[in-house]
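Sanity check. The docking grid for 3-isopropylmalic acid depends on where the pocket ends up, so I'm generating a full predicted complex first rather than guessing from homology. Inputs follow.
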Amino acid sequence: MEKKIAVLNGDGIGPEVTAQSIKVLNAVAQQYGHIFHYKEALVGADAIDKTGTALPSETIDICLDSDAVLFGAVGHPKYDSDPSAKVRPEQALFGLRQALGLFANIRPVITYSGLQHLSPFKASHLEGVDIVIFRELTGGIYFGEKHTSDDGNKASDECVYTRPEIERIAHLAFKLAQGRKKKVTLLDKSNVLETSRLWRKVVQDIAAQYPDVTAEYMYVDNAAVQVILNPKQFDVILTENMFGDIISDEASVLNGSMGMLPSASVGNGTALFEPIHGTFPKAAGKDIANPIGSILSAALMLEYFGLKEEAQAIRDAIDWTLQHNFVTKDIDPMNFYFTSTIGDLVSEYV
Amino acid sequence: MEKKIAVLNGDGIGPEVTAQSIKVLNAVAQQYGHIFHYKEALVGADAIDKTGTALPSETIDICLDSDAVLFGAVGHPKYDSDPSAKVRPEQALFGLRQALGLFANIRPVITYSGLQHLSPFKASHLEGVDIVIFRELTGGIYFGEKHTSDDGNKASDECVYTRPEIERIAHLAFKLAQGRKKKVTLLDKSNVLETSRLWRKVVQDIAAQYPDVTAEYMYVDNAAVQVILNPKQFDVILTENMFGDIISDEASVLNGSMGMLPSASVGNGTALFEPIHGTFPKAAGKDIANPIGSILSAALMLEYFGLKEEAQAIRDAIDWTLQHNFVTKDIDPMNFYFTSTIGDLVSEYV
Ligand SMILES: CC(C)[C@H](C(=O)O)[C@@H](O)C(=O)O
Ligand SMILES: CC(C)[C@H](C(=O)O)[C@@H](O)C(=O)O
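Predicted complex below; grid placement will be based on this.
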């Protein structure tokens, strides 16, 4: 198989962790006889510094011309203090989501027994947690009309959804559930919001087309409780953009480390793969960041290419490193390995 | 002191738990020489069954004519299945919030060492957690314009905020923080929403008037992580309606039991006090529900009346029952006391 991969390193620890994923992808290519072509492009604060914009049009073109995008992280402390500034690194995320039509963000949340010392939860609480969260990514209050009055004393944001926007991501969620524990839980606030009532109605319609999958409906405030109080009840979670932003981050705490979790954002054309962690500025350039979130994102990319065996080889390699305590400083501050060493070990094992 | 208290029992376990609070209030009245006049009014499914509406105008009148409202819970399984039905018990909540102008919902979140066996968290994680959450309650996406297209395939909800709406609740939060650990954390999504940018700007302005209080700003997705990963960092949390709905329920998991937590909703006139738990239909009428959330709500009411010593007497009584394992079935299913017994014990101790 031959594939074109756009590489968007971004800021902070982005370049370091992405470099490990490329090492691992190269090991997969060699082992299984694939050819991956990489093309780097600027994004985030790095792109602002070099071109004046967080998402240069050249970057969009490179992504559109690729089969998949491997994304690091964006953001820089020097832009953090003013969330209303005209040019900001995170604008690249919105821009990419829109330009590539990435309507579904998919986040698997699993737990590793080796990480339980890091977790605020009792060990017994975490065994067997295995959730996949589908968050709608190009609609809702993120992209609706926004206004601020001339005197600056009144502001508004509109949340809008249409049936087709809900249908396409609902189909993805129900299809995935068919190959898992056959349950989809929609999170909404249909006792308050019209958009939530639309979500519930459309998901009820779609659910009828998947009689082998159980559909459940839960208010988002209750879900914020249930995700931590009784996480094993969930299989696939489906929700709109803003609720998904909050609940998927919350659920990541179950894992014990933000550094270990991958994500995929898919649309109609190319797809984007990125760790859920941020730029972690304090660790940048020190070869101490955890590359597992990025490497697992590369594994999701291979699965997206249809390379299931290859993806599993990466997961096995990661399980092996964890079992042998080959971990980065965030997991074991006393006895740790470097970012690049983890990348080497996973590559060799593959 | 002489006060008029409207009693809105509502549905499910509402009447039982509220009855215990009244017992305790009567004990306080006797002990400290106050006079409390109670007036019952219909609300919720109970009101729908008897009058056809969840919030009869007579109920609003009784509340407006009272110094405070003691509220049980509303909701009934027979209305649960259809969140778009014309008449629903929860409408009483919105109606009361609007009619009484209850713009700030205040929820203290503390932990009890006796409850740690119920908590998904490690014991060490919970010691010393002491947070008060201020949730804006009469604005935002709850009360903005809502539309559904004629064909039912497009829906929208508008989130609107004005400077005065933010200022009045911000003042309450900063004032409370002055008597606590002197920190207010605003939760917003100011990297995405205009309304959040307005919140941040206004809170920065208000913060300048409280130089002894530290103001912090956190994105709500990160807050969903921090509240459970590092809850001790928070003192007073301030946020808008929808974020507050989600984050305050999430934070309640720290306590270990939804049955133990009170809330106050304040406005310009009368204020409303209610446990955060729901109607718990399975327990209704069995004298097994936990009345502590309601009794602590009564304590918040006394504080609101300026009766600090009396409120503290109730808290001491509750601590005493917990220390002696006088607890309801939700806390200890093997060795439990009845709802009414807990009410008696707290009253006697007071
Ligand atoms: C940076 C921010 C705008 C973004 C979002 O809210 O979508 C981030 O939190 C995420 O989840 O990717
Ligand atoms: C019942 C519901 C409409 C209500 C809300 O969202 O405000 C409830 O969740 C609450 O927090 O009081």
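Relevant for the grid: The pocket of 3-isopropylmalic acid (ligand 1) is lined by residues A 90, 93, 245; B 191-192, 221 (CB under 6 Å).
Also worth noting: The first helix of chain B runs from residue 14 to 32.
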